[in-house]
């Protein structure tokens, strides 16, 4: 019996090593493209043109980052705008989505079907870009306002339905009933009982919202003309457009041929990807600590 048990443990240990090796290879394949982008951003542009993409460049260079940082305070200001919009937008989005999802998840809410269908309807049909632009600029007067970058993304019907399903499956009705027996109102039940049990769902929606705000550039293109309020993604997009404009109009440009050849192209694009991606990476550890399942196990005693 001991021999069989020992053999079983050895076989299990061998399979664990194999599975861990496969998981490690898969993780490396997921991370390697971004690491390769970082390497290319530090590669000399001329070397990249002659030798192509290499894991170990023949010549390292910071020219791409020098070109991007020529904007000086403008780039730092864009970082500040993006961070402000992302933080405030994520908080506003979580408040609105969590309240809406909780309301339509309550079976005692008389209009839950209507508001659920209303949310689903907006997933299938939208007002369109022109009506949205008129509402934001003419009705709400948010032109050149930071709120024009926040409010259009604050409500997402898909996130509402995800959180609604999480409430239905992860928050026992007995907990809500116990709050009612103790005399708590709806808001107190929501704040004291429901939210602590909903951290995994809220963290998921919060991460989605954070990525949406951080990567948003289209709303800035529509509503922001003030250069002091341009977010990071829109700023980097304008830098890339300026590079393309100079290249396409090189024949009519006063810039010398040598300067055009030394102008970073692919390396500058990779540097922009690095500058736009590295800060948001730090958001993942913050949200991942809440990705824990089974928080409601044992919370209700039969």
Automatic annotation (TrEMBL):
It holds the Pfam family BPD_transp_1. Residues 79-284 form the ABC transmembrane type-1 domain. One of its GO terms (cellular component) is plasma membrane. It is found in: Cell membrane. GO terms for biological process: transmembrane transport. It is a multi-pass membrane protein. Keywords: Cell membrane, Membrane, Transmembrane, Transmembrane helix, Transport. The chain crosses the membrane at residues 21-42, 79-102, 114-134, 146-168, 189-214, 270-287. Belongs to the binding-protein-dependent transport system permease family. This is Carbohydrate ABC transporter permease. It comes from Cohnella zeiphila.
